[in-house]
Structure formats: C-alpha cells, structure tokens
Design goal:
Elements lengths: L1 H7 L8 H21 L8 H14 L2 H27 L5 H16 L12 H14 L2 E2 L2 E2 L6 H17 L5 H28 L4 H25 L6
Antiparallel strand pairs: 1-2
Helix pairs in contact: 2-6, 2-8, 2-9, 3-4, 4-6, 5-6, 5-9, 7-8
C-alpha cells in the first residue's frame, strides 16, 4: 500500500513505466492481429502501410489499396481528434476517454467475420490506436510511441551506446526504459500471433480486455490522486 501511495504521488501519473509497457504490449498485439487476420494491413504502423500501398499499386490490388488509404486517413483523423481533446479539454480524466475508442472498437471487431471487407474494419482500429499513442506518449519524462517500435529501438541503442562508450550513467534510465518498450512490443506481437492459432478473429478480445484493465487501473489511480493529492498534476 505504501508503494502504491508513493507511485500515485508522482508528477504526471500518465507517464508511469507500467502504463507505457502495458500500452506498448497492446500496440504490438493489435498490429500483429490486423496483419494476420485483416488482410496484411497494420493498424498503427503507417510506414509499413505506405510500403504495402506501393506493393498494392504494383500488383493492381484495388481492395488492398483501398484499405491502406482508408487506414492511413483514419489514423490521421485519430491524431486530429486526440490533439483537439488535449488542447480543449481540461479534465484530469481526459486520457481515460481517449482510450475508450480503441477499447470498444477492439471489442466490436472481434465479432466481425473475415467475410466483411477489411476496409470496414482496420481503419476504425487505426483511428482508436492513433488516439492511444498520443494520449500516452511519455515514459518517465521521455517521449516514446506505444504502437511502433523503430523509434524506441533507435533511442535504446543510442542511450546504451552513450552509456558504454562514454560511461555516461545518466543514460541508464532512458536506455532501460526504451529497451523494455521494444521487448514489450515484441512480446505483444508474439502473444497475438500465438493466440491467433486458437482464437482467430476473436484474438483481439484479449487486447480489448487488457485495455479495459489498464484504463480502469489508471482511472483508479487518477481518482485516488484527485481526491487525496488534488494539487498534483496528472
């Protein structure tokens, strides 16, 4: 209990390492799911979608092309919406509401059969996951992305290199955090792929359940802090 009290008294509660790792795990999980079950499109990895977009053009794959374009645009829309919320909404609970779309969309998608065109599925996930990645974009003061891994990997390697080459101990926190983020993303993708063998399109319900738990825990911490430490920032 004492450790919990100390944790919620930290400034900027949304930057907790545990939250960052949990959201990153879900990011890898959902991307692996959409790639495996929803036509080889990534809900969050727009760089990959751009590459697939070029491939679809070369192969004249119109359905695949349409899905990539719709996903890309939906992701942009999600970024616009979450940025607008950040600028206009002053509530300490606004980040909770930013996670609700991906929670409910993931739940609904698990009911949608593969016979439904992916253009009606993946873009909605991209919209929700874009909101997630901006609402929770820092880990202990460090910028990161919980839906992609390249940037986190780059920062981890740079920080570890500075530590070993220059013996700069100030880099250890960043190096450790970014490395854990990369591992968490990989684990999410692996677990998703493994569970897909058993649950198929329903695999995403696991991600939906995890997001519910994560959001509930964060909301509970915000509530406790709002009531017992109202002067702290969230």
């Amino acid at each position: 209990m004492r450790a919990y009290r100390e944790k919620i008294k930290r400034p900027h509660l949304y930057q907790l390492r545990e939250l960052a790792l949990a959201f990153t795990f879900c990011g890898g999980f959902i991307d692996a799911y959409t790639f495996t079950e929803r036509g080889g499109t990534l809900a969050a990895g727009q760089t990959g979608n751009i590459i697939f977009f070029g491939t679809d053009i070369a192969k004249r794959d119109l359905p695949g092309l349409t899905t990539k374009v719709a996903t890309f645009l939906a992701y942009i829309l999600g970024l616009i919406v979450v940025t607008t919320i950040a600028l206009k909404v002053k509530s300490k609970y606004k980040r909770i509401f930013c996670i609700l779309p991906i929670m409910f969309i993931s739940l609904v998608v698990g009911f949608v059969p593969t016979s439904v065109p992916n253009v009606f599925v993946v873009p909605f996930l991209a919209f929700g996951i874009a909101m997630q990645t901006i609402a929770f974009n820092k880990i202990e003061g460090l910028g990161y992305r919980n839906t992609v891994s390249t940037g986190n990997l780059q920062k981890a390697v740079i920080a570890w290199t500075k530590y070993f080459v220059n013996h700069d101990s100030s880099q250890t926190r960043a190096a450790s955090n970014y490395l854990l983020l990369v591992i968490s993303f990989i684990c999410g993708a692996i677990v998703s792929a493994l569970l897909d063998n058993y649950f198929g399109i329903h695999t995403i319900w696991i991600a939906a359940s995890l997001l519910v738990i994560i959001n509930f825990c964060y909301g509970l911490m915000v509530y406790h802090r709002d009531n017992f430490y109202p002067g702290e920032k969230l």
